[in-house]
Amino acid sequence: MTINAPEGTKDLLPNEAKFWNRFKQTAFDVFGRYGYVPIETPVMEQTELFVRGIGEATDVVSKEMFTAISGENLKRLLDGGSIKSKSRLSMRPEGTAGVVRAAVQHDLVPQGAAPAKLMYAGQMFRAERPQKGRLRQFNQVGVECLGADAPTIDAEAIIMLMRFYREIGIPEGSMRLLVNSMGCDECRPAYRELVRAYMNEHADELCETCMTRAEINPLRAFDCKNPGCAAVMENAPKITDHLCDSCREHYEAVRALLDGAGVAYNQDPKLVRGLDYYTRTVFEVQVDNGMGSQNAIGGGGRYDKLAEEVGGRPTPGLGFALGFERCALALEAAGVELAPAQQCDLFVACAGADAPEVRNAAFSLVQQCRDAGFSCEMDHQGRSLKSQFKLADKLGAAKVAVLGPDELAQGKATLRDMATHDETLVALADVTAALR
Ligand code: HAM
After folding, report:
1. What's the start-to-end Cα distance of the chain, in Å?
2. What is the mean pLDDT of the segment spanning 74-95?
3. What mean pLDDT do residues 227-239 have?
4. Measured from the CB, is residue 286 less than 6 Å from ligand 1?
5. Which residue of 124, 145, 304 sits with most ligand 1 atoms within 8 Å of its CB, as the best mutation to test the pocket?
6. Is the CB of 300 under 6 A from ligand 1?
7. Phi then psi for 131, rounded to 5 degrees?
8. Given pLDDT bands bounded at 50, 70 and 90, which one contains residue 353?
9. What number is the average pLDDT over the span 253-279?
10. pLDDT over 90 (residue 72)
């Protein structure tokens, strides 16, 4: 029996892996221009971090986390014992909680300092039901800006996100940017009660899950995919009508900055996002083509209380993450080529491949060209000269150096330009100069 990759995981085959590298590099180049610096945090964290940071009642924490228990502790649990909460580890379902934990642990945002602007790229894990654009292990690129609550930070991050999509090639007209404000501790509790009361009035039109949500976190009902629930929630009280003065001013300032920068967006008072840490600004970018129901290619928002939730001093924060696999689907749907063809500057072909001195000279020439910075390849399987040319063609070689006993006797190789078919005899020591 062959063993395949686990359900919901995906091998990134060479072309996709190449594109993932380019994707990360492009993102880091763009974000670097806005002052973001890289950070790497572990793929595993204490489960408690996600419970406190993302919220126990969210789907991500209550249903979708992969929790890891080491062998010893597993035995202890199976024997009916208990383990310390420090030993309960979960694979990160997202990057924000870990980055904020690291910032608190290493005091990356000392009081009075400029905001810490951090960016990251890596695998996230969610035990969701796999479908197109929804994986159990997927790749995200994200940023977190810690230590400033000014609306300019929110607007700057959104502008930067849209710039990245443009640079990676997602057609502008195919994207929709949604923005909303989630309010804060001052205005959200009263709003939440209004939504709960509204849901109770419409209890017979809402699904069972939504009515359970009404008890724990009524705002989650805005995410329900059930058409009946969506119709009811369409007329629910809108958060933007119930913001306190400072949240309203903050939201207006963010929108004014986006307007000033010419960024098109739609206000969506139903956008609540699936993670409990958000306060004030939230945003999401969606596309329609090639995506099915998993159409969010990125999203984020402000989380001014998260650092305190994980034991730090009050530190406002804002960030976003974008899904690599979903962006790749959006690009494919738009007909954009993901990875450029393999580059090969020179293929060294052996005429008389069975002569060891010819093979050895070819081997040395290949190393010499690579040392000089050229991508170079040769045959390793004793192919005929004709097959070696076929291989050179397949690799997209710009030039082929043919080396046989006659050439070798003169210390030379025949250099053929694969586009013009011109051939010149070049001294082995001058091949790299000829390539230049
Ligand atoms: P999120 O909306 O949960 O936010 O995920 C961000 C992006 O990751 C989504 O828009 C989507 O493109 C991708 N994504 C999420 N789940 C999956 C999945 N199962 N399969 C494939 N792609 C997926 C966050 O993760 C927040 N940490 C963003 C943030 C940063 N907020 C503040 N700072």
Report:
1. 51
2. 91
3. 95
4. no
5. 124
6. yes
7. -160, 180
8. low
9. 96
10. no
Closest ligand 1 atom to 95 CA: 27
For residue 128, the ligand 1 atom closest to its alpha carbon is 19
Average pLDDT on 61-66 reads: 94
Residue 147 Cα to ligand 1 midpoint, Å, equals 22
Ligand 1 atom with minimal separation from the 96 CA: 27
pLDDT band at residue 70 using 50, 70 and 90 as cut-offs: confident
Does 320 contact ligand 1 (Cβ within 6 A)?
yes
Q: What is the pLDDT of residues 175-201, one digit of tens each?
A: 999 999 999 999 999 999 999 999 999
